[in-house]
């Protein structure tokens, strides 16, 4: 099945596609060269802070539907990179994702992936594929915090072990393709205890931390930290000598930024 483009926001290059069976998914063109695409209709992980899975999970996108998000735009936009980071969990639809990834790589596109690492079988395949970068979305290390963040209670320690087993044999240079995604939420995961666990993990395995600001959505009660607290957390992590990247204006866009994509855009 293929997709048809239904709507484009004139404000931020947000694109909504309709599937042949009447569902809707979204992609976002950002930074002037990168298309962030979706892999599922809804999301099975059910992150409480994210709009994408707030209505539940409906089905996987086929490889053709994933490719279509690019093909419908390639003649009108200067797309040089693909971010597999839209609606859905790539590891839960890994065969279609890998099919599409190979298609993109054959067209000399840079392809990055964002994943929670569940299920483990799909995570292993993503880690080993011909990607240009993987962001392992953790957002919290303690069980207490993770229960507040994720509806799906998947085996986090086992997922982390899978990640460590993959990166440990790699050189520091090759490890630069892997980073930890951490979304700061006020009074949830911004404590010194949680940030220390994050910093020590990143330091031990020579990993970059992508420290993200939260985009509030109607489906979530969570709040972003203040700009002052965001800067304080950044400086705290930097004291450990690790590399920390910050959210740019594209990731904090209220319509199309991280966590704001939905399957039911009007």
Attribute tags:
two-stranded antiparallel ribbon; about 270 residues; 12 strands; alpha/beta; globular
What does it look like?
The chain is α/β, with parallel strands linked by helices and 266 residues long. It has eight helices and twelve strands. The strands form two sheets. It has a ten-stranded mixed β-sheet, covered by helices on one side. The chain has a two-stranded antiparallel ribbon with strand order 5-6. Strand 3 and strand 4 form a beta hairpin. The longest helix is centred in the middle third of the chain and has 13 residues, at 94-106. The mean pLDDT is 90.
In brief:
With 266 residues, the protein is an alpha/beta fold. The protein has helices spanning 63-71, 94-106, 120-128, 143-149, 156-167, 172-175, 192-204, 227-238, and strands at 4-8, 14-18, 24-30, 34-37, 40-42, 57-60, 81-84, 110-115, 134-137, 178-183, 208-212, 244-246.
